[in-house]
Amino acid sequence: MRFDVLTLFPDIFHAVMKESIIGRAQEKNIIEINAINIRDFSKDKHKKVDDYPYGGGGGMVMTPQPIYDAYLSIVKDLPHKPKVIYLSPQGKVLNQKKVVELSKEKHLILLCGHYEGVDERIIEEIVDEEISIGDYVLTGGEIPAMVLIDSVSRLVPDVLPSEDAYKNESHYNGLLEYPQYTRPYEFMGRKVPDILLSGHHAKIEEWRKEQSLKRTLEKRPDLLKKRD
Ligand SMILES: CN1CCN(c2ccccc2CNc2ccc(C(N)=O)cn2)CC1
């Protein structure tokens, strides 16, 4: 799967995306992440990428030309237009269902806004979907883009070491995850539930399902309504 990220801060991506699972997936060529610097496409002699908003008001708006030309540099010799996602507070809030849907795509272009956002004509001209990672305000679209890349990439076949890691995920079967324990058996006077040491796999499975339900009821009862 290929991600092309249109951003003013490509270095952020180089730093984060070469680490851990995503980094290994890139080495294995299962995932490709390209950060394209919008500023490189500014035709302005001072490489300006923003300007004052028509109608006044505070802040600056990202000008359309550099973004459009950066976009063209990606799609100009592609047989078909990849899906373009704009990370913004106006978007539909990302959830696992949407993540699963996006993981089926071969190629995604992610547009990261800054300042007060991008000129509306860019959204009309090239953006297919607006996605928000939650109802809170950030300084830019880069962190939302990384959240999207991480959540989608881990569902691409062979990125995760084993499929089952994918199955028992919170928000995967619609429930929160059961509690996890590892050695030592006793820590700060707290012991591991004996069922987990019983070697009785059916009972352990039963206990884990029970814990997931209990936790979901306590912490996220809203998730129970959505379950089919
Ligand atoms: C004061 N506003 C200035 C304009 N800005 C903005 C507007 C449009 C696009 C990008 C941004 C960058 N910020 C983001 C981005 C995403 C999210 C999210 N929830 O996914 C939250 N914030 C929003 C903040």
UniProtKB/TrEMBL annotation:
Q: EC number(s) in its UniProt entry?
A: 2.1.1.228
Q: Which GO terms describe its cellular component?
A: cytosol
Q: Which Gene Ontology BP annotations are present?
A: tRNA N1-guanine methylation
The entry's protein name is tRNA (guanine-N(1)-)-methyltransferase
Localization, per the record, is: Cytoplasm
Q: Its principal location? A: cytoplasm
What does it do? Specifically methylates guanosine-37 in various tRNAs.
Indicate the family of this protein.
Belongs to the RNA methyltransferase TrmD family.
State which gene encodes it: trmD
Catalysed reaction per UniProt? guanosine(37) in tRNA + S-adenosyl-L-methionine = N(1)-methylguanosine(37) in tRNA + S-adenosyl-L-homocysteine + H(+)
Quaternary structure, from the entry: Homodimer.
Which Gene Ontology MF annotations are present? tRNA (guanine(37)-N1)-methyltransferase activity
Residues annotated to bind S-adenosyl-L-methionine: 113, 133-138
* UniProtKB keywords: Cytoplasm, Methyltransferase, S-adenosyl-L-methionine, Transferase, tRNA processing
Q: Which InterPro entries match?
A: Alpha/beta_knot_MTases (IPR029028), tRNA_m1G_MeTrfase_C_sf (IPR023148), tRNA_m1G_MeTrfase_TrmD (IPR002649), tRNA_m1G_MTases_N (IPR029026), tRNA_MeTrfase_TRMD/TRM10 (IPR016009)
Give the main EC class. transferase
